[in-house]
Amino acid sequence: MSVDFQASLFDDLLGEPAAPVGGAPAGFGDLAAGLLRHRLGAGAWVDVRPGWVRGADELFARLVREVPWRAERRQMYDRVVDVPRLLKFYDAHEPLPDPVLAQARERLSAHYAEELGEPFTTAGLCYYRDGRDSVTWHGDRIGRSNRHDTMVAIVSLGDARRLSLRPRPGHATGEPVSFLVGHGDLLVMGGSCQRTWEHAVLKSTRPVGPRVSIQFRPHNVR
Ligand SMILES: O=C(O)CCC(=O)C(=O)O
Ligand SMILES: [Fe+2]
């Protein structure tokens, strides 16, 4: 069984007007207002803040247009296969492709400063062109996250996709959960989440439009 949390359902509860359609500049809602923590077990948690980025239509369009997206290929057993999404990684000192992303990183670093103990530095961008694009089950465990608690903060733009989580065998128990992350939503995986749980954006057979995901991580977490 999977438990569904539909971010969009919370929108009205926050009592904040939805972003106007069209060219409004991107801005941010109060991060702490409407931020909800879901404890997954084994020290893993997920924070969700629906509609954090406002007026993000233009931002989404700019990122789709201007980020130098890369198609990658990976070895899978005895074959080389296309990675089913486009990617671009910005290391700590590389300029981000849009000032709004720098603002998002600053706000996240400020909000989580005490709990995380360090700033978010890098930004990994993924472009899911349609429902066939996906990321398979994994933990972000390259680097310190293999041994230490950390955070990965994801801003989602464009069409909503489901971020699914399940316990990593031998490391956690519990029911799988999934969060529908939509345009402007923030989802933060924290605590032991990368070591003890796995996450994925699974392929969708329903028609789904493009989505851009921006993942902010601290230094040497990937
Ligand atoms: O698309 C997402 O929000 C998740 C991407 C992800 O898990 C990753 O790139 O490590
Ligand atoms: Fe990931």
Topology of helices and strands:
Layout: E1 3-6, H1 7-10, E2 27-28, E3 36-41, E4 44-49, E5 53-54, H2 57-66, E6 70-76, E7 79-90, H3 99-116, E8 122-128, E9 135-138, E10 152-158, E11 161-167, E12 177-181, E13 185-191, H4 193-196, E14 197-201, E15 211-217
Parallel strand pairs: 1-12
Antiparallel strand pairs: 2-5, 3-4, 4-13, 6-7, 7-8, 8-15, 9-14, 10-13, 10-15, 11-12, 11-14
Fe (ii) ion (FE2) binds at residues 138, 140, 199.
Features:
222 residues, alpha+beta, Jelly Rolls, 8-stranded antiparallel beta sheet, 5-stranded mixed beta sheet, 4 helices, 16% helix, 40% strand, disordered N terminus, binds 2-oxoglutaric acid, binds fe (ii) ion, AlkB-like, Alpha-ketoglutarate-dependent dioxygenase AlkB
Could you state the CATH homologous superfamily?
Answer: Alpha-ketoglutarate-dependent dioxygenase AlkB-like
| Spatial arrangement of strands, main beta sheet | 3-4-13-10-15-8-7-6
- How many structural domains are formed by the residues? 1
Biggest sheet statistics: 8 strands, antiparallel
Q: Name the ligand types.
A: 2-oxoglutaric acid, fe (ii) ion
Which architecture name does CATH use?
Sandwich
Taking all residues together, what is the mean pLDDT?
91
Organism: Nocardioides mesophilus
Keywords: Dioxygenase, Oxidoreductase
InterPro entries: AlkB-like, AlkB-like_sf, ALKBH3, Oxoglu/Fe-dep_dioxygenase_dom
GO molecular function, one term: dioxygenase activity
